[in-house]
Amino acid sequence: MLSAGHGVMWWRHHDVSSLFVGRLSPFDDQERWEHFREFRTDFVSRSWLTYRREFPCLEQTHISTDAGWGCMLRSGQMTLLEAFVRHFLGRDWRVQKATSDQAAVYRDLLRLFADVPSDTSPFGVHSLVGISVKKGRCAGQWFGPAQVSYLIKDSVNHSHTMFHKLKSLRVYVAQDCTVYMGDVEEMLQRGREDTGGQNCAVLVLIPIRLGGETLNEIYFPCIKALLSMDESVGIMGGRPSHSLYFIGWQDEKLIYLDPHYCQNVVDMQPDDFPLTSFHCIEPRKVSMNRMDPSCALAFYCRDWSNFRKWCHDAEPMIIPPRQRGSYPFFTFNPGRSWEYLDGVTPPTSRSHSSSTSSPCTRSPGHRNSPRRPGKSRVTTYSLHLHRPGEPVPLGLMGHDVDDEMEQDSFLVVDKTDSRTDKQADHDHCS
Length: 430
Hints:
The chain contains nine helices and 13 strands. It is an alpha/beta fold. A hairpin with a 2-residue loop joins strand 6 and strand 7 (about 255).
């Protein structure tokens, strides 16, 4: 899977039998460069939604750009759009190899996120801000990951009245860092009834805070393990007051797509409107220790069976390794939550947290339903730093280095096998 930001991501390969372990010189193995090209193709296919300028003013304001305040909204849009792409086009879809029919479907999905005040764009900035205003926020305010998670959920629910095909995707937001499996089962059952018996998929969003002022390093292995799952759609997070969409990892760095690039608004009415500004070609990364502890994890499960499999596979990954106690990322509960039972939205203090906080803070000392991790193996593609003095592959020498990247580091792909269990530390094997 990929993780997003204006940068690089890790890439999961599904042919486990073809994987190999270890580092090779850049010119030692042709197969390795085939994998690298696959990675680049995969990365470039990720939808990149950034700041836009000169769009129609937001209702009752003179605001015609989201530059400076809409970065978390854009990260949320990228998360939701990736879920839609997987839902309607599949995980193996590539923009460079799209058929005419696939390209038409993709453009239809992008139109749902158009920056225009229209019911035909339920996930555009105008629509998302409109929902937030009804909840007491002002246009132009910065959003936190928990707030955006609920905006995504509300916007998807609203879209079902106008777009019947979107009813086959539901959004679930975890309560107090707990995924209530009974709630998801009920949600998917209702979705099946609404769609005339069609299986529904679910986008699971888990707002969480992993530390106080900074990210607690005991969760680094958990982040990498969870990002390596097939179901992972990425992480809405970033640096303090600087949202990024994380889609993967390399060593102790996270690969991301960055929404902080302001571009002109695109007219999406033509059938063949250009896609260039919706795709990033330069992978980027940021150190995990610079990640804001407030974030939201995202997972796409295509049906109830896939959701149960994800729950089973994720359990051993949510507890930091080598800890005397159990301090999980989040927990699973087979029952129902009060929110879904009562059909009401949780209080603002619990769910719609401020931009600097999240519904739940995980740190040593917090104990919640201790679980003993079993064994799980995650096979991934990972990116390794290319050190000075080693041969540098053609095409990377001219790589544009921003303030997040080490001036002496380039990106090189290795295929690896990482393990997570009670004794192992989730670290990537190399």
